[in-house]
Structure formats: C-alpha cells, structure tokens
Design a protein that fits this description.
This protein has 9 helices and 5 strands, in the order αβααββααααββαα. It is mainly alpha-helical. Among the domains are: about 80 residues, Winged helix-like DNA-binding domain superfamily/Winged helix DNA-binding domain (Arc Repressor Mutant, subunit A, Orthogonal Bundle), CATH 1.10.10; about 80 residues. The protein starts with 7 loop residues before the first helix and ends with a helix.
C-alpha cells in the first residue's frame, strides 16, 4: 500500500503517532490533547505549527480512513485515544518507521541528521544501518534522494507521502558529519552560534520588536536544533573512533 496524498496536518499527526509510540510508549496511545501538543511542539518540528483540536481530530480521522491510524480507547479510559497502523499499512519495520517519522516531522535531511534525530527511537550501531533503512524507504517509494546542495557532501532524503515532501526542510543544510576534522565542524557551529543574535538585532532595529520577535525566535530555535544535531553526530563519531582504537589496541 502507498499513500502519496497526505496533507500537511495528516503528515504531522502520523509522524507524531510513530514518534511517541517509540519514545514514550507509557503514554501511548495518545489522547486528542496529547496528540495536539505533540503536533505543536516547538522543538524537533519544522515547520512549527499551531493546530487546534478540530484540525488534529480531522487529520486523525482521515488517516483512519486511509488505514494508517485508528481509535484505541481502552475500557478503563473515557478519553478518545489514537494509535497508528503504519507497520501493517506500509509494511515497514521499526528502523524504517523511525526515519519516516523524522522525515514527516522535519522535512528533508541527510543520513547523519536522520541518525542523530532518530537515536531515541532506534539504537543505530553505524551510519551504514541508517543508509540501509533509507534504501528500503526509497525502494518502497516512501522516500527519495534529493540533489546535493552546493558544498554539501551528504545527500538529503525527503519523504514522498504527501504535499510539501520536496520543498519543506530544516533550513540551510549543515556540513556533513563526515567532515575531515571535528575542529572544522565545531568552528562552523561556533560561527552560527554567534550569528542569530546579530541577525535578530538587525531585524528588530529595522522592523520593530513586534514584527521581528516571532521570526527571530523561530530562527534561533531552528539554529539551536541544527547545532544540537551536529553535536550529537560529532559525539557519535568520536565514540566510534574511540571504540575502533580500543579494539585495535
């Protein structure tokens, strides 16, 4: 089965259901309010949205008609709850589902970014495992490779389940996690870390506080998330290098 017509709200709801099942199973299935809060998170989401309950409920109901979700209220709970059926409907295993969820929630990304952002859902042993799972998604036509950006070493991947698959993304692509030295990546991250304040100040002076604050805040949050992803990738690479050295000794 292949669904390629999911609207943005349906993509967000499906991604949240997959993510929360793998990261907080004790709180799954999700109530309507929990699902709304998950959709509207300010972190690990791009773009950040502000859906109301009606939007989330209607999106979940449409997913149920597609066979991708269903109601799951227990006998001891009066609240309506939702769970996804992506394993059965799409025929995917947990690694592929985790990557698909991150693509649905954050747009096109490189394998290194996907590894860092799905680490809580899958205990990846190596980047090659991520690439194999991505290959499965590509072969099933649930994801596709995008052309490399200028100066970018890693390919990006986008989900193909619905609208906006090829254009939404996490903003300017960071340098590849496999750059020659960790110092070069850290230097780039440091330069970015200093940039948001200056940019925000310039915008605020030009357009006034009320116009600049929301855009500046979103820019700061997006940059912070990209820096966090870089740090996670660097830490993972350092652990792998240390392990290899110890094994060789």
């Amino acid at each position: 089965m292949h669904i390629d017509t999911l609207a943005p709200a349906e993509q967000r709801v499906l991604g949240c259901l997959i993510e929360k099942r793998l990261t907080t199973p004790e709180q799954y299935p999700l109530t309507l309010n929990s699902l709304r809060l998950a959709c509207n998170q300010a972190t690990n989401r791009d773009p950040v949205v502000s859906y109301d309950e009606d939007t989330v409920r209607e999106a979940a109901q449409r997913l149920a008609r597609y066979g991708l979700a269903r109601l799951a209220s227990g006998h001891s709970s009066r609240a309506v709850k939702y769970r996804h059926l992506a394993e059965e409907a799409l025929g995917l295993e947990q690694p592929e589902l985790a990557l698909l969820a991150v693509l649905l929630l954050r747009g096109p990304q490189t394998p290194g970014e996907l590894r860092a952002r799905s680490e809580r859902m899958v205990g990846w042993r190596a980047l090659e495992d991520v690439e194999r799972a991505l290959q499965v998604l590509v072969e099933r036509d649930y994801a596709r490779r995008l052309e490399r950006r200028p100066g970018q070493k890693e390919e990006r991947y986008a989900q193909t389940l619905g609208e906006g698959a090829a254009v939404s993304g996490p903003g300017p692509a960071p340098e590849s996690a496999g750059s020659p030295t960790a110092q070069a990546v850290a230097a780039t991250a440091t330069r970015e870390a200093g940039a948001p304040g200056a940019n925000a100040t310039t915008v605020a002076a030009k357009d006034g506080p009320s116009a600049a604050a929301p855009d500046a805040t979103r820019e700061l949050e997006a940059r912070l998330e990209r820096l966090e992803a870089r740090v996670a990738v660097i830490a993972t690479l350092l652990q792998e290098l240390t392990g290899e050295e110890l094994t060789g000794a």
